[in-house]
Structures are given as C-alpha cells and as structure tokens.
Write a sequence for this structure.
C-alpha cells in the first residue's frame, strides 16, 4: 500500500504482518528489520525469537506461552505470542484498503484486520474478533510493532501516566519484576537519576526493559519522538477496549535499538 508519504509492505503468508513502513520523506524505515541474510518465516508453535523478529505482528490469544485456564478448553496449550503471528492469513485487496483474516487453530475464533490510509502520513488498523463457539472465549490481543529507534529518540506517554511497573525478569536498570517507578525519571542504584523514556541513553549491552503504565491511561495514545529530526511516530487506540499500555525497550543483535508498544 502506498501514499505520497508512506509505503507499507504486508506479508499475508507470514502472520499477516506489516513488514515495513517506509517514510518516503525521511527516506528511512520505521519498523525494525532483521539483520539475518534471509527472511525467516514463522512456524506455528515455535517461540517468537525463532521467527524473523521484525515488523508488526498480532498477538492473540495470549502473549506468553501458557495453558488455557477454563473449560471447555481447560489445559489446551497456547503457543508463545499466541497463534496468529505464525499462520498464513487470507487477504483481499480493495480499491482503498486491504482486509486480512485468519482462523484459530486450537480455539474457535476468527480475526479480521482492515488496513486503510486516513491521510498521506497516517493509516488505520480496524479489527473484528468472532467467537465461533457457543461458549465464552477469553483472550488477550495486543498489537506488536517493533519500531527502529534512532539516536535522540524518546518514548512519550500521556500526561495521566505517572508511574510504570517493571515486568521484565531479565537483568536491567528497572529492577526485578513488580518494581514501580515514577514516569519518566526515576532513581537507580547504578545511574542515580535515570530517564526511562530516553531509549538510547544509556546504551548498555543487552538492554531489555519492559514496563506497563500502573493505571489505565485516560488518553488513548503513545508515541516516539526524535528531538534531532523532529519526527514523531504515534499510536492511538480506544482505552475502553484496550485498558493496558506496555512498552519494551531493547537491543537486537547488540546494537540496533527498537521499541515494542
């Protein structure tokens, strides 16, 4: 899909993912691209890191690998990052949009995703979820874009976000799982004052910081802003349907910074 300012590449056969959002004005890629020599197509049931680890995937019906908690699917295993990121999607191309769809494998649901431009510099993703059974089906859905972060990039969260909670168990500046920090500046034993929003500073090896807003943001948006170029990438969403806001800041292949909102 293409406008005067953006070119969007979609790979239906590999999770229906948006592989690339190319900024024609800035002549740069917005989404993280794997540095492997060849594209690694996702495989159902595999861990996410064994796929291409790039672009913009969908996560449903769970984020982590787990077992479904209630009857009639009690104990059914859910793969890492869910099912649909590793499945081929059907698609139809219309004059002003592309519509993709996928059925669950171990669970009776169907997801539709519509992609359409709103303006030259923005596009909308619209989703529909269908329960194909006579029983309630509980699930988690999360958009999973990996954004490239150039130097001088900051995470911008709404004014109502005052605190964030660390949910990463790996060694990082934000401490163990469950540690609560003021947003955006906190204190750490390593750095003293530490600006969590500053993605590329400090640039320490193996950076992996994952955090959520402690409360549901009143405003349904989040963004990345580069103070050097003045460019901003933003996401907006309905908080009544998506009450949680999480961010992962990390390094792929030891030197490329990326953010997952």
């Amino acid at each position: 899909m293409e406008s005067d300012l953006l070119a969007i590449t979609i790979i239906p056969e590999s999770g229906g993912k948006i592989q690339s959002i190319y900024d024609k004005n800035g002549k740069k890629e917005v989404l993280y691209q794997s540095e492997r020599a060849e594209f690694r197509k996702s495989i159902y049931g595999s861990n996410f890191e064994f796929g291409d680890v790039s672009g913009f995937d969908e996560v449903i019906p769970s984020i982590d690998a787990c077992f479904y908690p209630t009857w009639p699917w009690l104990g059914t295993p859910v793969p890492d990052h869910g099912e649909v990121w590793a499945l081929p999607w059907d698609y139809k191309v219309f004059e002003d949009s592309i519509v993709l769809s996928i059925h669950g494998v171990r669970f009776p649901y169907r997801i539709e995703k519509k992609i359409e431009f709103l303006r030259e510099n923005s596009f909308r993703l619209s989703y529909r979820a269908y329960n194909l059974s006579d029983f309630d089906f509980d699930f988690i859905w999360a958009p999973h874009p990996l954004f490239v972060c150039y130097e001088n990039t900051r995470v911008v969260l709404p004014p109502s976000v005052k605190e964030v909670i660390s949910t990463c168990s790996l060694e990082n500046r934000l401490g163990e799982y469950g540690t609560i920090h003021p947003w955006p500046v906190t204190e750490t034993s390593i750095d003293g004052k530490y600006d969590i929003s500053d993605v590329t500073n400090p640039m320490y090896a193996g950076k992996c910081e994952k955090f959520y807003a402690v409360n549901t943001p009143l405003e349904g948006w989040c963004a990345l802003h580069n103070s050097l170029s003045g460019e901003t990438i933003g996401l907006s969403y309905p908080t009544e349907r998506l009450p949680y806001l999480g961010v992962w800041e990390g390094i792929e292949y030891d030197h490329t910074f990326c953010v997952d909102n």
Observations:
- The two ends are 23 Å apart (CA to CA).
